Amino acid sequence: MAKKILIVGGVAGGATAAARLRRLDEKSEIIMFERGEYVSFANCGLPYYIGGTISERDKLLVQTVEDMSKKYNLDIRNLSEVIKINREGKTVEVKKMDTGEVYEEYYDVLLLSPGAKPIVPPIEGIEEAENLFTLRNVPDTDKIKNFVNEHKPKNAVVVGGGFIGLEMAENLVDLGIEVTVVEMAAQVMASIDFEMAALVHKKLKDYGINLVLEDGVKAFKENGSKLLLNSGTEVFTDMIIFSIGVRPENELAVDAGLPVGKHGGILVDEFLRTSDPHIYAVGDAIEVTDYVGRQPAMIPLAGPANRQARIAADNIYGRERKYPGTLGTSVVKIFDYTVAATGNNEKLLKQQGLDYQAVHLHPGSHAGYYPGANPIHLKLLFDPADGTIFGAQAIGKTGVEKRIDVIATAIKGALTVQDLTELELSYAPPFSSAKDPVNMAGYVASNIIEDGIRTVQWDDIDDIVTGGAYLVDVREPSELRGGYIEGAVNIPLSDLRERLNELPQDEPVYINCQAGLRGYLAARILLENGFDPINLDGGWITYATAKNK
Hints:
Elements: E1 4-8, H1 11-24, E2 29-34, E3 40-41, H2 46-50, E4 61-63, H3 65-72, E5 75-78, E6 80-86, E7 91-96, E8 102-106, E9 109-112, E10 116-118, E11 132-133, H4 138-151, E12 155-159, H5 163-174, E13 178-183, H6 194-206, E14 210-213, E15 217-221, E16 226-229, E17 234-236, E18 239-242, E19 246-248, H7 251-255, E20 279-281, E21 288-289, E22 296-297, H8 302-316, E23 330-334, E24 337-343, H9 346-351, E25 357-361, E26 376-382, E27 389-396, H10 400-412, H11 417-420, H12 437-451, E28 454-456, H13 461-466, E29 470-473, E30 489-490, E31 509-512, H14 517-528, E32 533-536, H15 539-547
Parallel strand pairs: 1-2, 1-9, 2-5, 9-20, 11-18, 12-13, 12-18, 13-14, 28-32, 29-30, 29-31, 31-32
Antiparallel strand pairs: 3-4, 6-7, 7-8, 10-19, 15-16, 16-17, 21-22, 23-24, 24-27, 25-26, 26-27
């Protein structure tokens, strides 16, 4: 039986659902309402149009109203805002943005995909800041692009160190603008852990960005030409990009009496139905289940929004497909770095009370003898009891997203760290090594579970050594010129067997090397000789990066 289906909002959620609905049924009436002018655009590409990497504005428009209407036989009404839901009568009130006219439309099924909007708190002077911009859609992009072209700012402040903030920072630098990034937390990119973010901090500084951490904006002065930070620091600027996060557009749902979660996301069941069986919701406006920890979460990403839209469309036609939760797999370009992550980080695992172990390694992106290999800084988080994979993070110049995508697939397939060692991945010297970094991560983690190799983390070793513990650095003496941990005794790995008598046998022996491998080899030697070795995970590289040595 043909249905009348109304969709609130376009882009990733609404437009995808509309297309899927039509593919499933040629006869239903499908009406999509979009408050803005554009129904389907590449919002992830907006910063790159501003910076000039994407030169043609039309490339951002994935589908026009006319093209999509004809291709899928849809009734698309842009510049139309749904302002009220009457659940009892199964109608919505729609306001035409150009005329102000309000009319009513009936539905059999309603799909909400209103998205999320930038958080803009009531900071002193923010309303008067004439040079302050947020970035969500094409009109926002046009405003920023026009401001840059007309006013030719020499410097800019980006408030917020998340995906959009850092992408905008890079693109402003590409335009020759001096950039300051202000972030209230101790690190940028909340999706990764501190020692991984430290690599990003260094990269930002290497490209001339003034990075201000653990400080926030107290007030905007002089119509936005001056920022007063909480620390008392004054920052003068020609323009401001305000990007501290987003919040779900939930007002329509709340006014209709639909429940929302503690973060404001519209509550849906595993079939993406709200508490009203005739109303579904998808995208950045909904609360999802964190795939790893099975906790409520807000994870505003385009990929999950597209999948939710397809599943909701299937369920509207009775297919009863479940949405399993959001893994949060993400990737971002930071100048010549690729930064990617999947699953949960340490901060989340601690909050959720999960017992976990971390390993860090720094393998090459491909065979070291083939030109152009670069290190991939890889972190794997797992359950030390059974090898369940909780998450991974990786940073490097090439091959990063491939490895994270493999681990994301492994998590979805319920593989363990032991299974990672068995993955048969493509290999040729220009692309990888015979033992891929993903295999290596599996081996390192499996050594802990199966062989009883003990490790210590970068943020614990200083206190341990200060407390009198014995630390042996098994690198070559020449390597120590690049830095070493205070209090370490240097015994190169090649000399270790002959110098075992120098080591204490009545207490643990802590070991560090450059990246962790030689430390592991040293640990095996010491274990076989009756010692109690504990290896510094990730070696000097992880330690020095996190400690800014």
